[in-house]
Amino acid sequence: MNLFKIAVFRPVATLMVFVALIVFGVYSTINLPVDLFPEIDPPVITVITTYPGAGALEVEQNITTELEDQFSTLNDLDEITSTSVANVSIVTLEFDWGQT
Where are the bilayer-spanning segments (predicted)? Predict the structure, then answer.
């Protein structure tokens, strides 16, 4: 309750505290070193295979499924995603972070 009395009976002091907080916040924000795009090397490999003249189903059966089966035996593999479209198979391998 004492804090409320001070805020009401001394509005200039309350205003100065808020101004000081705003000035400190602006100063800190301006001088804060922030790297919005840090240098990282994500552990991801994308394998793109072409199969001219084949439809999406044929690419999936003959290329994508075979690649997924072979890649699934790799160590430290986190996730495999694949896309098959006409003439092209795209297989993305995502490894665990920190692995070389």
Answer: 12-30
pLDDT tens sequence across 38-65: 888 889 999 999 999 988 899 999 999 9
The secondary element (H helix, E strand) that includes residue 26 is helix 11-31
What is residue 49's DSSP assignment? E
Mark whether 86 and 48 lie in a shared domain: yes
Task: Kindly state the helix (H) or strand (E) to which residue 11 belongs, with its residue range.
Answer: helix 11-31
Nearest to 44 by CA among 78, 90, 73, 82: 78
| Token pair recorded at residue 74 | 């790799």
Please give the Cα distance from 93 to 60 (Å, whole number): 16
* Beta strands in the chain, from DSSP E residues, in sequence order: 44-50, 77-85, 88-95
pTM: 0.60
